[in-house]
Recover the amino acids of this structure.
């Protein structure tokens, strides 16, 4: 049987952090670190208050979430995983947007493997207008205001179906005991 394609092991999918990352890249890297360390506060800190988060494709039926709703979703998701690591394969950056090809590898607390692939389209806040009379000082940090998170829907559906079945089986076992 042929080896399965793994973008993180393919030499043509090599992303390295630039030596002088842009402000948007620094925000994205902070987001990535927060996801890899499962740090709720750090994750939420990179988002603008106007955040709109979409999990796509639309066929998954996921609602559009604002910052508060995404925070609740993320908090609810955290106990599901025993560990997860995100890898970046490619980043395409413009002054106010970024497209990222990524993958994740992890498992649920019940041992269900979770290995997904993503395309993230991120929109960032614009820098403030600085005038001689403004009191803007220090370095400005952009926030993420829009996330379009395309997931491998087959992997997502399989994972959550399997994990929920394991939860249901555990509940049945407890009821029998």
């Amino acid at each position: 049987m042929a080896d399965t394609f793994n973008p993180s092991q393919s030499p043509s999918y090599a992303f390295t952090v630039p030596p002088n990352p842009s402000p948007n890249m620094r925000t994205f890297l902070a987001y990535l670190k927060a996801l890899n360390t499962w740090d709720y506060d750090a994750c939420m800190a990179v988002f603008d208050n106007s955040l709109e988060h979409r999990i796509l494709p639309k066929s998954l039926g996921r609602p559009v979430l604002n910052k508060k709703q995404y925070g609740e979703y993320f908090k609810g998701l955290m106990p599901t995983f025993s560990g997860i690591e995100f890898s970046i394969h490619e980043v395409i950056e413009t002054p106010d947007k970024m497209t990222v090809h990524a993958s994740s590898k992890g498992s649920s607390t019940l041992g269900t493997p979770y290995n997904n692939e993503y395309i993230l389209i991120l929109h960032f806040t614009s820098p403030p207008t600085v005038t001689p009379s403004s009191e803007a000082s220090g370095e400005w940090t952009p926030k993420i205001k829009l996330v379009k998170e395309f997931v491998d829907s087959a992997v997502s559906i399989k994972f959550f179906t399997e994990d929920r079945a394991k939860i249901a089986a555990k509940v049945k076992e407890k009821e029998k005991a």
